[in-house]
Design goal:
The chain has about 230 residues and is α/β, with parallel strands linked by helices. About 45% of the residues lie in helices and about 15% in strands.
């Protein structure tokens, strides 16, 4: 039976690259995003037909998350893999941030993955599925005045807490912590540094973790480009 995967933040960057890679492996893939137009553009470019489901919604909104999971189950009847990828960063340091934008980032980056796990755990226990959460090197290295880094430290803690919760149930939990990746993250920062990974390279790391035997789980992968020292 074709595995079913749900990816948040899947219309571009790492999420879109991962969706393409899993579609090529025969997964049925649902991707979410806030921008319906970008989702439609991705669907058109992917050309995956009924193997791809796009769902507009906000990962930090509990009702949207519940509706998304229900739509996936209504469409395909099961859920095997969940990839919590949605997130964003504010340019500058803490003292430069607008408080409302700070709140939005914390809710998206931290509450979003927690809501996704909460809503999908019953279905992943049933399928003995896998959870992948996209963290960051910023979650293992401190950065001066960087609230994004704070959110990723919290995400890494969430992953370990979830692993302790569901390991006995046969659910695999993986943290992927990328270094610099050339995505829209860098649009407001003058472009990515010369030492940068591609979204496809991080997608390959995610697929590697997912393709382990059923009784093996890669709990954490830190992936940096050669030349990134922090």
């Amino acid at each position: 039976m074709e595995p079913v995967t749900l990816i948040t933040g899947g219309s571009s960057g790492i999420g879109a690259a991962t969706a393409r890679a899993l579609l090529e492996q025969g997964h049925r893939v649902a991707v979410t995003g806030r921008d319906a137009e970008r989702l439609a553009d991705f669907a058109a470019s992917a050309g995956a037909g009924e193997q791809l489901l796009t769902i507009a919604g906000d990962t930090s909104d509990a009702d949207d998350v519940a509706a998304t999971v229900s739509q996936v189950l209504d469409s395909w009847g099961r859920l095997d893999t969940v990839i919590a990828n949605a997130g964003f960063s504010l340019p500058g340091a803490l003292e430069d941030h607008d408080p409302d934008a700070m709140r939005d980032m914390v809710l998206t980056n931290v509450l979003g993955p927690a809501l996704l796990v909460r809503e999908t755990l019953p279905h992943l226990r049933a399928s003995r599925g896998r959870i992948v959460v996209v963290g960051s090197v910023a979650g293992i290295r401190y950065t001066p005045g960087n609230l994004y880094s704070v959110t990723k430290w919290a995400v890494h803690a969430l992953v370990e807490n979830v692993r302790l919760l569901v390991g006995k149930d046969g659910v695999g939990v993986t943290l992927i912590a990328p270094g610099v990746v050339d995505t829209a993250f860098w649009d407001e920062r003058g472009g990515a540094p010369d030492a940068a990974l591609t979204p496809e390279q991080i997608a390959n790391a995610i697929v590697f973790a997912l393709n382990q035997p059923a009784d093996v789980v890669v709990n954490q992968l830190v992936v940096r480009p050669i030349g990134q020292v922090n």
